[in-house]
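DM between two lab members

TW: hey, do you still have the Peptidyl-tRNA hydrolase ArfB entry open?
JB: yeah, one sec
JB: this one, 136 aa:
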Amino acid sequence: MLKISNSVTLQSWEIQLTAIRAQGAGGQNVNKVSSAIHLQFDVKRSTLPDFYKERLLALSDSRLTKDGVIVIKAQSFRTQEMNKEDALNRLKELILSATIVQKTRRPTKPTRNSQKRRVDAKKRKSNTKALRGRVN
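TW: and the structure you got?
JB:
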C-alpha cells in the first residue's frame, strides 16, 4: 500500500512490480542478479480520484504511455529492495507533482523608469559602437 496523501492511498494490486536485470557495467553482480525494478501503474484502472487521473493523463511525460500506464525503471541501487523503494517514491512524487496547480501569469507593463534605463543602455551601446568606426 502506497500512501499519497491523508485521504489518497494506492493498494498493492494497482502497482505491478517486476524484477529485471540492471543495464550497464557492474561485473558479476549485474550479470547474475535481477536487482532493477520495473514499475507499471495503470492510471485509468486505478482507484485514484478523478481529479488525480485527469491531471496525470494530461501530463506530457515520457514515462506515461498512450494507454495511460506509468512506467518507471529503478536501477540506481545494488539491492532490489532499495530499487523498489526508489520506484515507489518516484511514483508518489509524480502523482503529487501532477496535482500542483500552476499560478496563472498576468502580464504587466514595464515601469517608465525601466523603459528609460533600457533606452539609455541602448544609446550607450550605440555610441560605443559608433566610436569603433573608420577614422578620417
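TW: got it. Residues 2-99 form a domain with the Double Stranded RNA Binding Domain fold (CATH 3.30.160.20). The mean pLDDT is 88.
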